[in-house]
């Protein structure tokens, strides 16, 4: 049985699946990824998912025109370790893995992947959107969710000895549900009690991030240590974007590598990487460099290098060089890839 880590033992350190580390060793960090996932509805659990999706379905799967259980479930530790090793080879050092309650976390798998690849892996905790949650959660209180998340950070998560290093990605759908609000209120308590950062998957609605900011303020969250994920598919105008940035919250563009206009999960025009880089530039010019992080949010096998996708190396190999070409300085790139993640992942 693990001993509970105290706030004092954790303060000033980051927590990976292998234990506490000096945050200076985190290096280039992808703030929102999944190495394991399972989006298969209960009742279809017998579907075969070995071997990965058929690459001939690449375009259809990317467009959401077809579903393949081999695409929406990834449990293979060997695949995850090889994909992570590629990132290390490309210059990446740390992956924040946010597969949490409802989408199939594998804490011991993450330990194995970290040992084999040499990457730091920081694990999330809490619960994803209501549609994915265990039906038993409906009867649970804020206090019960909060204690669970505090334990996941200080003791161990999902009946393992592996501890989480960040709270989230806390899931919200549209319309935002009461259960999800209880989980988020609990996540704020976990942030306050443990000193961890909080990362939130907003609902697919352009007003939801601001609703989150209001909720977080009401509940006393530390906005400078709270990340609103998936800005790329949620916010499409500078008014909303700048207002969010002015609140002090951290903004995450975590769909780098998705280059298609057509997004299966909402009626939006998905930006491509060039547009993401232009939008982030406008925020930097307005003084918000310290509030920006980026990632790929890979949660389809078709996006893995092994099955024909860009893998976890895309940011190192394509995005960062493109940022340089478009006038981003080395310091700006380091802020986004190293300094901001390090600040967020350091317990306070
Ligand atoms: Zn995610």
UniProtKB/TrEMBL annotation:
Keywords: Hydrolase, Metal-binding. The keyword Ligase does not apply. Binds 2 divalent metal cations per subunit. PANTHER family: PHOSPHOTRIESTERASE-RELATED, PHOSPHOTRIESTERASE-RELATED PROTEIN. Signal peptide: none annotated. This is Aryldialkylphosphatase. Belongs to the metallo-dependent hydrolases superfamily. Phosphotriesterase family. Pfam families: PTE. It comes from Mesorhizobium waimense. A divalent metal cation 1 binds at residues 32, 34, 169, 297. Its cofactor is a divalent metal cation.
């Amino acid at each position: 049985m693990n001993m509970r880590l105290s706030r004092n033992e954790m303060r000033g350190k980051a927590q990976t699946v292998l234990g506490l580390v000096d945050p200076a060793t985190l290096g280039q960090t992808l703030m929102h990824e999944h190495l394991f996932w399972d989006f298969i509805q209960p009742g279809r659990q017998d579907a075969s998912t070995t071997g990965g999706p058929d690459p001939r379905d690449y375009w259809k799967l990317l467009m959401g025109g077809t579903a393949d259980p081999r695409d929406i479930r990834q449990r293979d530790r060997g695949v995850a370790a090889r994909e992570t090793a590629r990132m290390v080879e490309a210059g990446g050092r740390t992956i924040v893995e946010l597969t949490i309650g409802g989408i199939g976390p594998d804490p011991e798998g993450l330990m194995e992947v970290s040992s084999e690849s040499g990457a730091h892996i920081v694990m999330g905790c809490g619960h994803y959107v209501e549609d994915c949650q265990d039906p038993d959660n409906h009867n649970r209180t804020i206090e019960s969710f909060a204690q669970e998340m505090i334990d996941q950070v200080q003791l161990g998560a999902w009946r393992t000895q592996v501890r989480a290093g960040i709270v989230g990605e806390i899931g919200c759908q549209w319309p935002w549900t009461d259960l999800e609000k209880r989980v988020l209120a609990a996540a704020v308590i976990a942030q306050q009690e443990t000193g961890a950062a909080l990362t939130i998957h907003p609902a697919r609605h352009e007003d939801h991030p601001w609703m989150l900011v209001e909720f977080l303020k009401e509940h006393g969250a530390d906005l400078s240590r709270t990340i609103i994920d998936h800005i790329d598919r949620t916010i499409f105008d500078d008014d909303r974007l700048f207002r969010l940035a002015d609140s002090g919250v951290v903004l995450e563009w975590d769909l780098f590598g998705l280059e298609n206009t057509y997004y299966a999960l909402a009626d939006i025009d998905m930006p491509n990487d060039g547009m993401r880089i232009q939008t982030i530039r406008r925020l930097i010019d307005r003084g918000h460099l310290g509030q920006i992080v980026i990632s790929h949010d890979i949660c389809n096998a078709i996006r893995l290098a092994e099955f024909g996708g860009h893998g976890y190396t895309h940011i190192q190999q394509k995005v960062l060089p493109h940022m340089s070409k478009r006038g981003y300085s080395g310091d700006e790139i380091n802020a986004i890839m190293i300094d901001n993640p390090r600040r967020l992942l350091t317990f306070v």
